[in-house]
Design goal:
Elements: E1 3-4, E2 7-10, H1 12-22, H2 38-73, E3 109-110, E4 117-121, E5 126-128, E6 132-133, E7 140-144, E8 149-153, E9 156-157, E10 164-169, E11 174-179, E12 188-194, E13 200-209, E14 212-215, E15 220-224, E16 229-236, E17 245-249, E18 252-253, E19 263-268, E20 273-279, E21 288-294, E22 300-307, H3 312-344
Parallel strand pairs: 4-13, 15-22
Antiparallel strand pairs: 1-2, 3-6, 5-11, 7-8, 7-12, 8-9, 10-11, 12-13, 14-16, 16-20, 17-18, 17-21, 19-20, 21-22
Helix pairs in contact: 1-2
């Protein structure tokens, strides 16, 4: 018996010969070639067919076994396509030029580098800036969230309130909402919207504040002669500190280099700006009306009373008595005038 290509597969003639010997006992005599009876011939033919089937199966199994063995023995390698990258290890520097997507292909989008919060002063024009990239043929609109009111479409004002205007800067791709003479009621959320499908928006918050200026201890301050006057002016609710704060005494700007001396001012700027007016060795001439005037906020006034050994309560009582006397005098004069009028009319 001979093998096929180094495999454990026998030829058809060898298998037939072996099967012939197996079926030897069923034949008419001892040989495989002597004469057979009818039943033996039929059985021999069946055995030959089975032998052929087994040989074919044995050959195919040998081929599959060889193929499987080769797959196991040879190294298995896989190279992913160039356009496939793990998200965690993505590096644009490693991409080919044809792989990196052109930003112009991504459609319109918002530049979110600007702040979402805008603070404006009452009466001072406010701007809400919206920067849109790759707008193309789309339209930018502004919507007020409070009542979902459409304010502007493109460059046109859509609302009857003409204080709202759209300002477009083509060089910077800016679509700003301009609010003229803003009031505190205009505070709220506004949305810059692009007319894509579906629309996309970028919300911003407008805070309209009225600056508050106050002097600690006002509106009247009582100071003993010879003591130090410390007037503290506080300015708050401003988007930025006022550039300058001026102090006046009885309507005239205070001269810190005057011969009187001992007058100075200290200003601390921040979210809340504080200005301190210091007057050393107070005297009667320092009494009067002092006004704090921030350059970007409303002024406020305090009345300073320098006392000569008097008690503030006594001064207030004196002022109250004088006020009552003035009121009584006015009432007396009014009654006299009424009586005189009745007399001329002949009323008794």
């Amino acid at each position: 018996m001979e093998k096929l290509s180094g495999t454990n597969v026998y030829t058809v003639s060898d298998e037939v010969e072996r099967m012939c010997h197996v079926s030897k006992g069923l034949l008419a005599n001892d040989g495989c070639t002597p004469k057979y009876d009818a039943r033996g011939q039929q059985l021999a033919a069946t055995m030959r067919q089975l032998a052929v089937v087994m040989i074919i199966l044995n050959i195919n199994y040998g081929r599959l076994h060889c193929s499987y063995t080769m797959d196991i023995d040879e190294p298995h390698t896989y190279t992913p396509p160039k356009h496939y990258f793990q998200t965690s290890s993505f590096d644009e520097n490693e991409l080919d030029d044809d792989v990196v997507k052109n930003p112009l292909d991504r459609g319109p989008y918002f530049d979110i580098s600007a702040s979402r919060n805008v603070t404006a002063l009452v009466g001072n024009t406010a701007y809400l800036n919206c920067r849109v990239r790759n707008l193309g043929n789309r339209t930018v609109s502004w919507i007020r969230h409070r009542d979902l009111h459409l304010l502007t479409v493109g460059k046109a004002t859509y609302t009857s309130d003409q204080r709202y205007q759209s300002v477009h800067n083509a060089q910077l791709d800016d679509w700003s909402l301009k609010v003229l003479y803003p009031q505190q009621r205009d505070s709220g959320v506004y949305e810059c919207q692009i007319s894509t499908t579906p629309p996309v928006g970028y919300s911003m918050t407008l805070s309209v504040v009225e600056p508050l200026t106050s002097i600690v201890g006002g509106p009247d301050l009582y100071i003993d002669t010879g003591s130090t006057v410390n007037l503290t002016c506080i300015v708050q609710h401003l988007p930025e500190p006022p550039p300058h704060i001026q102090w006046t005494h009885n309507g005239e700007e205070i001269n810190y280099d005057s011969p009187r001396g001992g007058v100075s001012v200290i200003t601390e700027k921040g979210d809340i700006t504080t200005s301190y007016l210091l007057i050393q060795r107070a005297r009667s001439a320092d009494s009067g009306k002092y006004t704090c005037l921030p350059s970007t906020a409303n002024p406020t006034t305090v009345h300073v009373h320098v006392l000569n050994g008097e008690h503030p309560a006594a001064i207030q009582r004196g002022l109250q008595i004088r006020g009552e006397r003035t009121l009584l005098t006015m009432l007396f004069l009014l009654l006299m005038a009424i009586s005189s009028g009745w007399g001329r009319l002949g009323v008794r």
